[in-house]
Amino acid sequence: MIKTSNRNYEHTEKDKTPMKYNEFHLGCEFKTGSEKTFRCTDIGTRVIVAVCLDDHPDDSSWYNGPPYAVVEHAFDEYSQEDCTLC
Questions:
Q1: 63 phi/psi in degrees, rounded to 5
Q2: Are 15 and 31 in contact (CB under 8 A)?
Q3: Which residues, 6 or more positions from 48, have their beta carbon under 8 angstroms from its beta carbon?
Q4: Which helix (H) or strand (E) covers residue 8, if one does?
Q5: At CA 12, angle to CA 27 and CA 2, rounded to 5?
Q6: Does some domain include residue 50?
Q7: Could you give the number of structural domains in the chain?
Q8: Strand, coil or helix: what is 67?
Q9: 73 found inside a domain
Q10: Could you tell me the residue range of the domain that residue 49 belongs to?
Q11: Is the pLDDT score of 45 beyond 60?
Q12: Secondary structure of 17-61 in the HEC alphabet?
């Protein structure tokens, strides 16, 4: 439960609150507006780097790294607004 403005707020699955830069951490999983699931692999000064977990759902060895066998995607401050926690 999160307390904001003297109100108690419970995070639910339907809550699509955009993520802020400080909510990302290495290994966290999040969804984009296209409903793809990503895992954070690096945090830069202004960008978040992540791998898409939907590319090879049956073989997790693709996500062992670094280096990763799949493409890493960069999310700038505008792309981050489209991300929500899983």
A1: -105, 10
A2: no
A3: 21, 24, 40, 42, 74, 75, 80, 83
A4: strand 7-9
A5: 80
A6: yes
A7: 1
A8: coil
A9: yes
A10: 26-85
A11: yes
A12: CCCCHHHCCCCCEEECCCCCEEEEEEECCCCEEEEECCCCCCCHH
Query: Quick one: tokens of 48?
Result: 């978040």
Could you tell me if residue 34 is inside a domain? yes
Q: Which residue do the tokens 């960008």 mark?
A: 47
Position 12, amino acid: T
Report the relative pairing of strands 37-43 and 48-52 from DSSP bridges.
antiparallel
Q: Identify whether the C-beta of residue 43 lies closer than 8 Å to the C-beta of residue 27.
A: no
Distance of CA 9 to the CA centre of its chain: 21
Q: Is this prediction's pTM over 0.70?
A: yes
Residue type for position 20: K
Per-residue pLDDT reduced to its tens digit, 62-71: 999 999 999 9
Domain membership of residue 70 (yes or no) is yes
pLDDT tens profile 4-37: 333 444 444 445 788 999 999 999 999 999 999 9
